[in-house]
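ok trying again, last paste got cut off:
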Amino acid sequence: MSKAATLRHLSELGAAAFDIDPFIEFTRREWESSPTDVLESVRTADLGPRVAVRSSATAEGLEPSSSPGIFATVLNVDTSISLDLVEAVERIFGSFAKSSSTMSLDDQRVLVQTFVDDVSVAGVVTTLDANRVPYLTVEYDDRTGRTDSVTSGLDAKRLVLSPAANDIPAQWTSLCEAVRIVSTELDRADLVIEFAIDREDRVHIFQAWDRGRTPVASASELHRAIIALEGQLDDLRGTRPRVVLSDMADWNPAEILGKDAGPLDISLYRHLLTDLSCREARRDLGYSFGEYPLMVELGTRPYVDVGRSIASLSPGRLSPTTQSTYADACLSILEARPSLHDKLEHSVLFTYWPFRGHGALVERFQALLPSTALEELSGALRVLTGDLFARWSDVIDGCSRDILMLDDWRRQNRRPENLNADATVFIAEALEVCRKFGALPFATVARLAFIADGLVKEMAAAEAITDADVKAFWCGINTPADEFLQDLGSDLHLERIVERYGHLRPHSYNIDSLRYRDRSDFLSRLSTGYRTASRPDGATQNTVIDRALADYCRAELGVSDDSLLTSHMLSRAISTREWHKFSFTSLLGDVLELIADIAETGGLTRSDARKARIESILAAPDAAGVYQAIEAGMSRHIVLDLAYPDMIRSHRGLQVVESAVPEPTFVTDAIVEGEVVVLGDGDADPSTIDGRIVLIESADPGCDWIFSRPLLALVTCYGGVSSHIAIRCQEAQIPAAIGCGTATYAALSQLASIAIDCGNGIISPGGESWTI
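nice, full thing came through this time. structure:
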């Protein structure tokens, strides 16, 4: 059944739940044969003075991307102006060239329909998600009043509804009823429906078609799986009055591990960092020592327990009562503005004395904290900050010594060649060294680096330093990425480059992601023409920052020693953090490769090994036991891909999955427009990103190779204001939008080109005018 035939069928139902607005359809053959006759039929079809011109090609619903926005849509066309109508029709036919299918002149169809104005929300709803799970997924725009913004990649928000959800937001009840009727009438499981809801709450259906896929589970099976998640959430909450989970707060598992992390990725991250190391590091710096691990698992997804995270980032001098009150206040801020969950430490709580002083605390917490608690928090933050500054250089020196200890151990303890009991001994010892001399000091210096980054941002916001000072600061920091890119452009022999950097891999905890050295000719194919950001005179610029820091310490902390905190100390913290990350991931990589070899020797794959948990591997007495642990992990692995929200506060969040509207971090003030290239984890030809806007879900040090190419800009799905990739873009002065969220990222991934206005924080489809 064609799309037009489907609309006619639905129109004949006379259903009260939705409207099918008047339309006509014609083929390219009819248009080319007699455009005058087609135009006349449009004018006499009683469609109204203005129409929407849409694609109705039979191939659109069969595209691999399953995107209804592959082809063009032209809105608000005046039917009395022939030229406008002709241009709109030709634009639709011209967009059919984007199809990967071969279409005949009769397959290329255009639908002209009454234009719907006074729209409150519009978008696309599907009845199976990308993994063929029977969720109702709504991608929508409730801001612009346009009916094509979602299909064109603008203003995409996302709502995912379980079939059994009984607490559907009121604004969606009419749409859900319309979808129920359409699904029942068409008797299809995999529908795509373009819709709009006007300000009188009338649902208008523009197109509906079946993609022809079969679901992997029934609605009842999905409901049982969600009920199991709700039980896990109750267990995590325990006796606490409320629990908030986030996949991008604090140690940001969505960015570091990705949305499809396996049990091995997650358990390694917990073992090395979030279960103990980061809590110990914070305690040793003067913060509270949390009783519980910071990261938890719900189903197959890792989350940060935000309440516990806030507690671990509170000054250790706070009384238990004030700490609890403070944590509740922070959670209230986050619940009121969920989009801040990836900016927890910048926009919700304070982890050091702010550059603007007591006024900043009052501005944020006066309405949420009693005056006594606010005063106690102020005093504790002042003492904590002064102590951190006094110990700053000693802490970094200690972390630097740990880097040397880790590197020495790795040189003296090469991984065993024979896969016997020695293999499990090496795995256990290497991970303990990695935790003690890698992850623990990394977590320590990462806290100082975060403070350094925050102070630079605060000084710039207060206009105590200029944009040029900020640029000079970031360009003056030495990191492994800088040396890597410099070595690529030097006369250094390729074997030496492989020796130094071959351990790097995109997504350091993912055993499925190959190291640089194992990617065929990857390093040799990288450009030697690294586009370096200009580096102003560091001494002049640093003096300005030093003066601002001295004024801050004197006015806010009562310390007149101008050397208490300097720009050199700030940059050293950031540099040391990056070198620690570089070193301990090399030893982590050795462990992953040994596990992969054990799996492959027994006929299993890296993907199989990724389904095992590290605690099972560590409990194995020998390589045969590791192999058995992998097999056990394969049998336990959950197949059904559930929809997980970015942030969870209650059972409802698992039935009604609403993605927080993101507030991306934009880098530089540049305006750029260009072609899009979506970068995955597989072997990529480095030249494919040249001169293009690169889209990548998340990026860790293993992705730094992209800066060796002349990319135009960068967009990520995940990543916070102080994430690795945000800092790299600051250093290289690459225009970027970091952490734009799942819905927006998915929409942008479908576009051929996009425009980014970093200064004003705007991302839009390339080559389009969006005057509302």
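cool. Residues 371-412 form the longest helix (42 residues). The chain has 27 helices and 21 strands.
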